[in-house]
Amino acid sequence: MCELFAMSARHPSTVSLSLEEFSRHGGLTGPHKDGWGIAWYDERDVRLVKETHPAASSACVRFIQTNPFSSELVMSHIRRATRGPVASRNCQPFVRELGGAWHCFAHNGDLPGISQDRRLSSERFRPVGETDSEQAFCALMETLRPLWSLTSLPSLGERKQVIAQFAATLRKLGPANFLYCDGDALFAHADRRHQNDGSIGAPGMWRLARRCPAGGELAAEGLRIASDGGEQEVVLVASVPLTREGWVPLTEGETVVARQGRIQR
To answer: Which of the four pLDDT bands, split at 50, 70 and 90, describes residue 222?
Structure first.
Protein backbone atom coordinates (compact mmCIF):
# COMPACT_ATOMS: atom_id res chain seq x y z
CA MET A 1 0.00 0.00 0.00
CA CYS A 2 1.14 3.56 -0.59
CA GLU A 3 2.76 5.73 2.09
CA LEU A 4 1.71 9.28 2.98
CA PHE A 5 3.58 12.05 4.78
CA ALA A 6 2.85 15.73 5.39
CA MET A 7 4.16 18.60 7.52
CA SER A 8 2.73 21.88 8.73
CA ALA A 9 5.16 24.28 10.43
CA ARG A 10 4.88 27.65 12.15
CA HIS A 11 8.02 28.95 10.44
CA PRO A 12 9.63 27.84 7.17
CA SER A 13 11.72 24.79 7.91
CA THR A 14 14.62 23.21 6.13
CA VAL A 15 13.45 19.68 5.40
CA SER A 16 15.73 16.79 4.53
CA LEU A 17 14.00 13.47 4.02
CA SER A 18 14.57 9.98 2.71
CA LEU A 19 11.45 8.66 1.01
CA GLU A 20 12.87 5.15 0.93
CA GLU A 21 13.30 5.07 4.71
CA PHE A 22 9.64 6.01 5.09
CA SER A 23 8.76 3.02 2.94
CA ARG A 24 10.87 0.61 4.96
CA HIS A 25 9.54 1.98 8.24
CA GLY A 26 6.05 1.06 7.13
CA GLY A 27 6.95 -2.64 7.15
CA LEU A 28 7.34 -2.89 3.38
CA THR A 29 9.83 -5.27 1.81
CA GLY A 30 12.12 -3.65 -0.72
CA PRO A 31 11.68 -0.33 -2.45
CA HIS A 32 8.43 0.89 -3.92
CA LYS A 33 9.02 0.57 -7.64
CA ASP A 34 5.95 2.39 -8.89
CA GLY A 35 6.88 6.01 -8.32
CA TRP A 36 7.06 8.75 -5.73
CA GLY A 37 6.33 12.44 -5.44
CA ILE A 38 6.75 15.42 -3.16
CA ALA A 39 5.18 18.88 -3.15
CA TRP A 40 6.10 21.86 -1.03
CA TYR A 41 4.77 25.39 -0.88
CA ASP A 42 7.07 28.28 -1.71
CA GLU A 43 5.14 31.40 -0.72
CA ARG A 44 2.00 31.15 -2.92
CA ASP A 45 3.54 28.75 -5.39
CA VAL A 46 3.96 24.97 -5.27
CA ARG A 47 7.06 23.04 -6.24
CA LEU A 48 6.19 19.55 -7.39
CA VAL A 49 8.64 16.73 -8.12
CA LYS A 50 7.46 13.29 -9.30
CA GLU A 51 9.19 10.24 -10.74
CA THR A 52 8.29 6.72 -11.80
CA HIS A 53 11.70 5.41 -10.71
CA PRO A 54 12.15 3.72 -7.31
CA ALA A 55 13.05 6.28 -4.65
CA ALA A 56 15.97 4.09 -3.55
CA SER A 57 17.79 4.51 -6.86
CA SER A 58 16.64 8.01 -7.76
CA ALA A 59 19.27 10.66 -8.43
CA CYS A 60 16.51 13.24 -7.94
CA VAL A 61 15.83 11.98 -4.41
CA ARG A 62 19.54 12.14 -3.61
CA PHE A 63 19.63 15.72 -4.90
CA ILE A 64 16.74 16.69 -2.61
CA GLN A 65 18.48 15.00 0.33
CA THR A 66 21.73 16.88 -0.23
CA ASN A 67 19.99 20.14 -1.17
CA PRO A 68 17.14 20.38 1.36
CA PHE A 69 14.34 22.83 0.67
CA SER A 70 12.60 25.21 3.07
CA SER A 71 8.83 25.34 3.48
CA GLU A 72 5.93 25.59 5.92
CA LEU A 73 3.81 22.98 4.11
CA VAL A 74 5.07 19.69 2.67
CA MET A 75 3.27 16.66 1.23
CA SER A 76 4.80 13.40 0.02
CA HIS A 77 3.58 10.10 -1.45
CA ILE A 78 5.27 6.81 -2.30
CA ARG A 79 3.30 4.72 -4.77
CA ARG A 80 2.48 1.06 -4.96
CA ALA A 81 0.38 0.82 -8.11
CA THR A 82 -3.03 -0.81 -7.79
CA ARG A 83 -4.83 1.04 -10.58
CA GLY A 84 -3.34 2.66 -13.64
CA PRO A 85 0.06 1.97 -15.23
CA VAL A 86 3.39 3.07 -13.82
CA ALA A 87 3.54 6.57 -15.29
CA SER A 88 4.30 10.08 -14.11
CA ARG A 89 0.68 11.13 -14.59
CA ASN A 90 -0.34 8.52 -12.00
CA CYS A 91 2.21 9.54 -9.37
CA GLN A 92 1.13 11.69 -6.46
CA PRO A 93 0.68 14.32 -5.07
CA PHE A 94 -1.74 15.80 -7.59
CA VAL A 95 -2.01 19.58 -7.97
CA ARG A 96 -4.83 21.81 -9.27
CA GLU A 97 -5.60 25.54 -9.19
CA LEU A 98 -8.82 26.78 -7.63
CA GLY A 99 -9.74 30.29 -6.51
CA GLY A 100 -6.26 31.61 -7.27
CA ALA A 101 -4.55 29.07 -5.01
CA TRP A 102 -2.70 25.81 -5.58
CA HIS A 103 -4.35 22.76 -4.04
CA CYS A 104 -2.46 19.49 -3.38
CA PHE A 105 -3.85 16.01 -2.75
CA ALA A 106 -2.52 12.52 -2.03
CA HIS A 107 -4.53 9.38 -1.30
CA ASN A 108 -3.91 5.95 0.17
CA GLY A 109 -6.51 3.22 -0.37
CA ASP A 110 -8.82 1.71 -2.97
CA LEU A 111 -12.04 3.28 -4.25
CA PRO A 112 -13.81 0.80 -6.54
CA GLY A 113 -16.83 2.20 -8.33
CA ILE A 114 -15.81 5.85 -8.02
CA SER A 115 -16.19 6.42 -11.78
CA GLN A 116 -19.85 5.40 -11.66
CA ASP A 117 -20.73 7.31 -8.49
CA ARG A 118 -22.62 10.48 -9.47
CA ARG A 119 -21.94 12.02 -6.06
CA LEU A 120 -18.26 12.12 -7.00
CA SER A 121 -18.52 13.45 -10.54
CA SER A 122 -16.82 16.63 -11.74
CA GLU A 123 -17.63 19.10 -14.50
CA ARG A 124 -14.60 21.39 -14.47
CA PHE A 125 -11.88 19.08 -13.17
CA ARG A 126 -10.88 15.99 -15.11
CA PRO A 127 -8.20 13.41 -14.29
CA VAL A 128 -5.12 13.23 -16.48
CA GLY A 129 -4.20 9.71 -15.37
CA GLU A 130 -6.11 6.54 -14.61
CA THR A 131 -6.02 6.32 -10.81
CA ASP A 132 -9.04 6.36 -8.53
CA SER A 133 -7.02 8.74 -6.34
CA GLU A 134 -6.95 11.47 -9.00
CA GLN A 135 -10.65 10.96 -9.67
CA ALA A 136 -11.25 11.53 -5.96
CA PHE A 137 -9.19 14.72 -6.07
CA CYS A 138 -11.16 16.05 -9.04
CA ALA A 139 -14.38 15.30 -7.17
CA LEU A 140 -13.08 17.13 -4.10
CA MET A 141 -12.16 20.17 -6.19
CA GLU A 142 -15.63 20.18 -7.72
CA THR A 143 -17.15 19.99 -4.23
CA LEU A 144 -15.00 22.90 -3.04
CA ARG A 145 -15.53 25.04 -6.15
CA PRO A 146 -18.67 26.89 -4.95
CA LEU A 147 -16.94 27.77 -1.69
CA TRP A 148 -13.83 29.15 -3.36
CA SER A 149 -15.79 31.06 -6.00
CA LEU A 150 -17.26 33.33 -3.33
CA THR A 151 -13.98 34.42 -1.71
CA SER A 152 -10.27 33.86 -2.19
CA LEU A 153 -9.92 32.14 1.18
CA PRO A 154 -13.04 30.62 2.76
CA SER A 155 -13.14 30.28 6.53
CA LEU A 156 -11.39 27.29 8.06
CA GLY A 157 -14.65 26.01 9.50
CA GLU A 158 -16.39 26.09 6.11
CA ARG A 159 -13.52 24.27 4.46
CA LYS A 160 -13.36 21.56 7.11
CA GLN A 161 -17.10 20.97 6.96
CA VAL A 162 -17.03 20.43 3.18
CA ILE A 163 -13.98 18.17 3.39
CA ALA A 164 -15.44 16.08 6.23
CA GLN A 165 -18.68 15.56 4.29
CA PHE A 166 -16.72 14.61 1.18
CA ALA A 167 -14.62 12.15 3.20
CA ALA A 168 -17.76 10.49 4.57
CA THR A 169 -18.95 9.88 1.01
CA LEU A 170 -15.54 8.58 -0.05
CA ARG A 171 -15.34 6.11 2.86
CA LYS A 172 -18.43 4.29 1.58
CA LEU A 173 -16.44 3.18 -1.48
CA GLY A 174 -13.35 1.88 0.30
CA PRO A 175 -10.30 2.87 2.39
CA ALA A 176 -9.93 6.63 2.05
CA ASN A 177 -6.85 7.98 3.79
CA PHE A 178 -5.94 11.28 2.19
CA LEU A 179 -3.97 14.48 2.60
CA TYR A 180 -5.22 17.77 1.19
CA CYS A 181 -3.64 21.22 1.35
CA ASP A 182 -4.86 24.56 -0.01
CA GLY A 183 -1.75 26.60 0.78
CA ASP A 184 -3.19 27.86 4.07
CA ALA A 185 -4.01 24.69 6.01
CA LEU A 186 -3.29 20.98 5.89
CA PHE A 187 -6.21 18.54 6.14
CA ALA A 188 -5.59 14.88 6.95
CA HIS A 189 -8.38 12.34 6.84
CA ALA A 190 -7.85 8.88 8.30
CA ASP A 191 -9.77 5.75 7.48
CA ARG A 192 -8.48 2.15 7.28
CA ARG A 193 -5.34 0.67 5.77
CA HIS A 194 -3.44 -2.61 5.42
CA GLN A 195 -1.77 -3.36 8.76
CA ASN A 196 1.41 -5.37 9.27
CA ASP A 197 -0.60 -8.45 10.29
CA GLY A 198 -2.41 -8.44 6.96
CA SER A 199 -5.71 -7.08 8.26
CA ILE A 200 -7.44 -3.93 7.01
CA GLY A 201 -8.46 -1.54 9.74
CA ALA A 202 -7.71 1.59 11.73
CA PRO A 203 -5.50 3.43 12.29
CA GLY A 204 -5.05 4.64 8.75
CA MET A 205 -2.86 7.56 9.78
CA TRP A 206 -0.88 8.96 12.71
CA ARG A 207 0.02 12.49 13.84
CA LEU A 208 2.73 14.09 15.93
CA ALA A 209 2.78 17.67 17.30
CA ARG A 210 6.15 18.98 18.48
CA ARG A 211 7.58 22.26 19.71
CA CYS A 212 11.27 23.05 19.14
CA PRO A 213 13.35 25.94 20.50
CA ALA A 214 14.84 28.45 18.10
CA GLY A 215 17.71 26.81 16.28
CA GLY A 216 16.50 23.38 17.37
CA GLU A 217 16.06 20.33 15.20
CA LEU A 218 13.55 17.51 14.93
CA ALA A 219 14.92 14.18 13.74
CA ALA A 220 13.06 10.99 12.84
CA GLU A 221 13.72 8.00 10.64
CA GLY A 222 14.33 9.38 7.19
CA LEU A 223 13.51 12.94 8.27
CA ARG A 224 15.34 15.95 9.63
CA ILE A 225 13.65 19.33 10.19
CA ALA A 226 15.53 22.49 11.15
CA SER A 227 13.71 25.74 11.87
CA ASP A 228 14.64 28.79 9.80
CA GLY A 229 12.97 31.17 12.28
CA GLY A 230 12.25 31.44 15.99
CA GLU A 231 10.63 28.90 18.26
CA GLN A 232 9.21 26.25 16.00
CA GLU A 233 5.93 24.35 16.14
CA VAL A 234 5.46 21.38 13.82
CA VAL A 235 2.65 18.95 13.04
CA LEU A 236 3.60 15.78 11.19
CA VAL A 237 1.13 13.34 9.67
CA ALA A 238 2.17 9.95 8.29
CA SER A 239 0.80 6.53 7.38
CA VAL A 240 2.91 5.01 10.16
CA PRO A 241 4.85 6.51 13.10
CA LEU A 242 8.33 7.64 12.15
CA THR A 243 9.68 7.65 15.72
CA ARG A 244 9.00 5.49 18.78
CA GLU A 245 7.28 8.08 20.95
CA GLY A 246 4.63 10.75 20.79
CA TRP A 247 2.60 9.69 17.75
CA VAL A 248 -1.18 9.66 18.15
CA PRO A 249 -3.33 7.35 16.00
CA LEU A 250 -6.20 8.99 14.16
CA THR A 251 -9.55 7.30 14.63
CA GLU A 252 -11.47 5.88 11.71
CA GLY A 253 -13.25 8.75 9.95
CA GLU A 254 -11.33 11.50 11.76
CA THR A 255 -10.29 14.66 9.94
CA VAL A 256 -7.42 16.67 11.44
CA VAL A 257 -6.62 20.24 10.42
CA ALA A 258 -3.16 21.75 10.94
CA ARG A 259 -2.27 25.37 10.34
CA GLN A 260 1.07 27.07 11.02
CA GLY A 261 2.30 24.07 12.98
CA ARG A 262 -0.71 23.74 15.27
CA ILE A 263 -3.70 21.39 15.35
CA GLN A 264 -6.84 23.46 14.87
CA ARG A 265 -9.54 22.42 17.33
So the answer is: low
Phi-psi region of 215 (alpha: psi -120 to 50; beta: other; left: phi over 0): left
- Catalytic annotation on 104? no
What pLDDT was estimated at residue 24?
62
Mean pLDDT in residue range 11-22: 73
In the three-class reduction of DSSP (H, G, I as helix; E, B as strand; rest coil), residue 164 is classed as helix
Nearest CA to 22 out of 1, 42, 8, 41 is that of 1
H helix and E strand count, the chain: 4, 17
The residue among 10, 11, 7 whose CA lies nearest residue 229 is 11
Query: What are the structural domains of the chain?
Result: 3-262 (3.60.20.10)
Query: Which burial class, exposed, middle or buried, applies to 156 when counting CB atoms under 10 A from its CB (0-12, 13-18, 19+)?
Result: middle
